[in-house]
Write a structure and sequence with these properties.
- The chain is of the alpha+beta class and 202 residues long.
- The protein has a single domain, classed as Reverse transcriptase/Diguanylate cyclase domain (Alpha-Beta Plaits), CATH 3.30.70.270.
- The chain has six helices and six strands; from the N terminus they run H-H-E-H-H-E-E-H-E-H-E-E.
- Strands 2-3-1-4 form a four-stranded antiparallel sheet, sandwiched between helices. A two-stranded antiparallel ribbon has the order 5-6.
- A hairpin with a 3-residue loop joins strand 5 and strand 6.
- The chain is flat.
- It starts with 8 loop residues before the first helix and ends with a strand.
- The C terminus is likely disordered.
Amino acid sequence: MPELRHSSLPKAGTELIFAAFDQADRNIELQKESRIDPLTGLPNRRAYGERQTELQHLLDGKGNREGEAKPYSIMILSVDGDGLGEVNNPKVKPKEEDEKFYGQVAGDRLIQRIAGTLAMTFREGDIFRRGGDEFIGFFVAKDEESFEKIHAKIEALAIEHPKLLRAGLAFADMGMNLVEVEEQADPKTHPENKITSANHTQ
């Protein structure tokens, strides 16, 4: 009777399986990285577009995320850094001792500071960096009580950091177009919706 020898096929098959798992893990990591802004660690413009689509489905009466019910209201916070252009490209050459406060590195630090402030303030919402010094936040209020709490938090943010950021606020209710409401939240193009310390949301 011929001697039985262990085949190398099972080992090769196992290596292929592990290689496939490793590749799948790498693909998952790459997918995550493709949705994260490397400078701030916040979700980026791609992730923002995906969440925007999900929320529009909610406004159209269709749940998207598992267990996500129809919202009482969606609050949209539009934020941009105040004075980033002057930090990156000062009109007047700064004094030597002040040079560290200007330039691209200082501008990046300002963006990171804004991102950190938003991320720490709004743990219950979705904050995205759209690009440059522009950020947007979506907050799904499920009832009047949660609406009031989030609203107060948004107002407090702009009032406490007037020299760091400009913020505008708008509200999307059932049946509304989210993109159109987002435009109304922009404090540059719709100053009437800018949050100020004098009159809160104008």
